[in-house]
Amino acid sequence: MFKTRITEMVQVQHPVLMGGMQWLARAELVSAVANAGGLAFITAVSFRSVEELREEIRKTRDLTDKPFGVNISMLPVLMPGDLTDAYMDLVCEEEIPVVETAGRSPEKYVEQLHSAGVKLFHKVPAVRFAKKAESIGADAVIIVGFECGGHPGMDDVPSLILVPEAADALQIPVIAAGGFCDGRGLVAALALGAEGVLMGTRFMASCESPMHNNFKEWMVNAEVTDTMVVERSIRNAARIMKNEAARIVARMEAEGATLEDLLPVIAGRVGREAYLSGDLDRGTIACGQAVGRIREIKPVAEIMDDILSEAKAVVERLNGLCGR
């Protein structure tokens, strides 16, 4: 229905992507997005070793014959430096079509990835970083607005401003992220100059998401004000669900806590324990403001159908306005 440079580049049906989400973006969820015509990324940092990631890649291939990617975080808090090289080697060996990176510059790996036929999508929170990504050879940039779950950067600029700024500044395709969860958002992103949207929060509340049902039920009842931004004091701003762990982090930061002080609360393993147990107050859980617009838990295929049906209806309505 919507053909863009992104759908052509990675040979997917729809310009709807699911970004890497630690502990959640595994074979079942990633393959469901792929089978629905989108593009999703397995999150490398969810696995304890390269071989575990290889097994997940192959499990995903058993569940879909469609393209999917791998997310490799370049954030030092998340990804041990000695594994990044090995993960890059693995995606090349496994002929993964596209890698999503975020955090520090992936410049060191561009030649290796391109030599293996792997496209590089680098996720950034500001246009200045998007320009840098283009200059080092990224094939596309994902620009994340202040609304996004996870790491929105330190500038507090929303997607409505960032997306057209990036589209005007770059020659490579721009993918919009932060605040997008439905068909109206998809059409808005395309109108702003993006070639697709990347969603995380919407796919968290899907039947295939491995997140505990307690969290899914919280999401469908949440308001747009039920997230908060923490970790500003360590220059690693993160938007998370507003729970007891979030309030503890905010209080610790106000008291001058260091990264080492915060790690027992913000470390990824704590979030994993929360996902498995369903304890809503244990761990910092990435969640975007779009959570306030999610009202149902559905299979990924139905979510994708809803997005595309709504997008088509919006375009038809706009076309009708133009004809008046």
Annotate the secondary structure layout.
Blueprint: H1 5-10, E1 16-18, H2 27-35, E2 39-43, H3 50-63, E3 69-74, H4 81-93, E4 98-103, H5 110-115, E5 119-124, H6 127-136, E6 140-144, H7 159-169, E7 174-177, H8 183-191, E8 197-199, H9 201-204, H10 213-221, E9 227-230, E10 238-241, H11 244-254, H12 259-266, H13 268-277, H14 300-322
Parallel strand pairs: 1-2, 1-8, 2-3, 3-4, 4-5, 5-6, 6-7, 7-8
Antiparallel strand pairs: 9-10
Keywords, please?
single chain; 324 residues; alpha/beta; TIM Barrel; 8-stranded parallel beta barrel; two-stranded antiparallel ribbon; 14 helices; 10 strands; 44% helix; 14% strand
Q: What can you tell me about this protein's structure?
A:
There is one protein chain. With 324 residues, this protein is α/β, with parallel strands linked by helices. Strands 1-2-3-4-5-6-7-8 form an 8-stranded parallel beta barrel, surrounded by 5 helices. It is built from 14 helices and 10 strands. The radius of gyration is 19 Å and the shape is globular. The model has no long low-confidence stretch (mean pLDDT 95). The protein has helices at 5-10, 27-35, 50-63, 81-93, 110-115, 127-136, 159-169, 183-191, 201-204, 213-221, 244-254, 259-266, 268-277, 300-322; strands at residues 16-18, 39-43, 69-74, 98-103, 119-124, 140-144, 174-177, 197-199, 227-230, 238-241. The protein is 44% helix and 14% strand. The chain has a domain at 11-207: Aldolase class I (TIM Barrel). It starts with a helix and ends with a helix. α8 links the parallel β7 (174-177) and β8. α2 (27-35) runs parallel beside α3 (50-63) and α11 (244-254) packs antiparallel against α12.
